[in-house]
Amino acid sequence: MVSITSIERSEVGSPAGRVTGPAELTIVLPTYNECKNVPIVVELLDKALAGVAWEVIVVDDNSPDGTSQVTADIAQMDPRVRIIQRIGRRGLSGACIEGMLASSSNYVAVMDADLQHDESLLPKMLEALRSQDYDICVASRHVEGGDVGTGLSSIRAWGSNLANTLARDFLKVELSDPMSGFFMLRRDRFVELAPRLSSQGFKIMLDIVASGKGALRVKELPFVFRERQHGESKLDTLVTMDYLGLLVSKIFNDTISVRFLMYSMVGGTGVVVHLIALKILLATFGLQFGLAQLIATFVAMTSNFFLNNRLTYRDRRLRGLVWVRGLLTFYVICSFGILANVGVAELIYTSKPIWWFAGAAGALMGAVWNYVVSNALTWRKG
């Protein structure tokens, strides 16, 4: 077995045994700071896919470590390697969608560039799809012969198992490993489903299968999750909320955007932060209620801004002086959102004095106002 750490970059692009002609298979590698791993992955693909007409599309979110340039250098030696460098937008699902749409192959595969996915499984996945008996082939860590190995910490493994359970129970996705990020599917089926997919989030395969609503014929193959060789994992604890947003969006048949759901969940945490801050200001510092309420409101707004910047708008994340300007605009927007909340609630309560209905309508109006205006001003595109 070839050691993935022993492959030298100078070996990349060797023409020996290369199959020419149009690619039958495209492998999409979404990347961010993977300059050390990309050359190794390309060489491993070359060995694993001997006799197959393949190409690899690296979709890089403008990595500061020079991943795009490293890939471009490889492409100069090997025409099977392509690079899509994304500037001003980020996110694993969006990168995967762009890469698959950029392909003209009959089959497209998605795998991580961090060396944790076993590339030797690709020929078996391709064989399964060539049989025309399946639309998508998923590499599973939870069927017989598969294993999470040492690639996941105990906490991440527990979270992955919980996410799998939620996907099966709420989305009726009959997969042993719906959180897998390693899969291959027929490109024509992907194109059919692409308009229903969310460019946000990290679990594109789950989105694809859930959007197929049981129509996709699925084959699962076992694989062992390997340990990352270089770089650091891009997944943090906030991905949990990101995943829950996708889950709820699919439950409601994509009638509510994932981003709005993320924004609303962050708003829910803001209520808790507000109450905790209010209690501390009243009980510990003995402030008057009005002043304590005002300070607690700004504490909650600051918390919401921080979480939205980290999670909801992670693909448009603000930094430096732009972060400060964004925070100030967010304060102003939320202040007007409070007025919209109270105004709508009072209007409804005057005509129909049902307190809970009026209060809920006001809160919804405030949330929609904050989301729409924040989306347009605070985290505007480009």
Automatic annotation (TrEMBL):
<feature type="domain" description="GtrA/DPMS transmembrane">
    <location>
        <begin position="263"/>
        <end position="379"/>
    </location>
</feature>
<dbReference type="InterPro" id="IPR007267">
    <property type="entry name" value="GtrA_DPMS_TM"/>
</dbReference>
<feature type="transmembrane region" description="Helical">
    <location>
        <begin position="328"/>
        <end position="348"/>
    </location>
</feature>
<feature type="transmembrane region" description="Helical">
    <location>
        <begin position="287"/>
        <end position="307"/>
    </location>
</feature>
<feature type="transmembrane region" description="Helical">
    <location>
        <begin position="354"/>
        <end position="373"/>
    </location>
</feature>
<dbReference type="GO" id="GO:0016020">
    <property type="term" value="C:membrane"/>
</dbReference>
<keyword id="KW-0328">Glycosyltransferase</keyword>
<feature type="domain" description="Glycosyltransferase 2-like">
    <location>
        <begin position="26"/>
        <end position="189"/>
    </location>
</feature>
<keyword id="KW-1133">Transmembrane helix</keyword>
<dbReference type="Pfam" id="PF04138">
    <property type="entry name" value="GtrA_DPMS_TM"/>
</dbReference>
<dbReference type="GO" id="GO:0047267">
    <property type="term" value="F:undecaprenyl-phosphate mannosyltransferase activity"/>
</dbReference>
<dbReference type="GO" id="GO:0000271">
    <property type="term" value="P:polysaccharide biosynthetic process"/>
</dbReference>
<keyword id="KW-0812">Transmembrane</keyword>
<protein>
    <submittedName>
        <fullName>Undecaprenyl-phosphate mannosyltransferase</fullName>
        <ecNumber>2.4.1.54</ecNumber>
    </submittedName>
</protein>
<keyword id="KW-0472">Membrane</keyword>
<comment type="similarity">
    <text>Belongs to the glycosyltransferase 2 family.</text>
</comment>
<feature type="transmembrane region" description="Helical">
    <location>
        <begin position="260"/>
        <end position="281"/>
    </location>
</feature>
<dbReference type="GO" id="GO:0004582">
    <property type="term" value="F:dolichyl-phosphate beta-D-mannosyltransferase activity"/>
</dbReference>
<dbReference type="InterPro" id="IPR029044">
    <property type="entry name" value="Nucleotide-diphossugar_trans"/>
</dbReference>
<keyword id="KW-0808">Transferase</keyword>
<dbReference type="InterPro" id="IPR039528">
    <property type="entry name" value="DPM1-like"/>
</dbReference>
<dbReference type="Pfam" id="PF00535">
    <property type="entry name" value="Glycos_transf_2"/>
</dbReference>
<dbReference type="InterPro" id="IPR001173">
    <property type="entry name" value="Glyco_trans_2-like"/>
</dbReference>
<dbReference type="GO" id="GO:0009247">
    <property type="term" value="P:glycolipid biosynthetic process"/>
</dbReference>
